C-alpha cells in the first residue's frame, strides 16, 4: 500500500511536469506529436522516480531497457484514448492528457513493479 501511495504521488508529480512540457510543445507541434514527446519525457522521469523512491531498487541497465516496454503498449492505448477524448467526446486538448493519465495509471503501477523487481512477483 505504501508503494502505491508513493507511486500515486510520483504519478501526480510526473503528470504535472509532463503536462507543463506538453503545454510548451503544443504551441509548436500538433497535439499528437506534443503528447508523444512529452510522454517519452514522462517515461524517463517515471523510471528514475519509481526505481529510487517507490520500489527502492537500483537503476540497472536491464530494467532501464525493459521498463519502457510497459509504456510502448500503454502509448498505443493512450493515443487511442487521447484521440477518442478529443475527437469523439470533444474534450479540450489541454484537459485530455490529464484524463488519459488517470485512466492508465493502475496498469503502469503493476507492470512497472514487475519489471523493476527483476521480473519477480513482489513480496508485499
Structural description of this entry:
The model has no long low-confidence stretch (mean pLDDT 89). The chain has four helices and no strands. It starts with a helix and ends in an 8-residue tail after the last helix. Helix 1 runs antiparallel to helix 2, helix 1 crosses helix 4 and helix 2 runs parallel beside helix 4. It is mainly α and 124 residues long. It has one domain.
Q: What overall geometry do the principal axes of the alpha carbons give?
A: elongated
Question: Count the strands?
Answer: 0
Would you tell me the structural class of the helices and strands? mainly alpha
- Alpha carbon gap, first and last residue: 8 Å
**Number of distinct helices:** 4
- How much of the polypeptide forms β-strand, as a percent range? under 5%
Contiguous low-pLDDT stretches (5 residues minimum) are none
Mean pLDDT: 89
**What share of the residues lie within helices?**
over 70%
Largest sheet report: none
Radius of gyration: 15 Å
Number of domains: 1
Strand and helix order = HHHH
In a nutshell, what does this entry contain?
The protein is mainly alpha-helical. Helix content is 79%, strand content 0%. The radius of gyration is 15 Å and the shape is elongated.
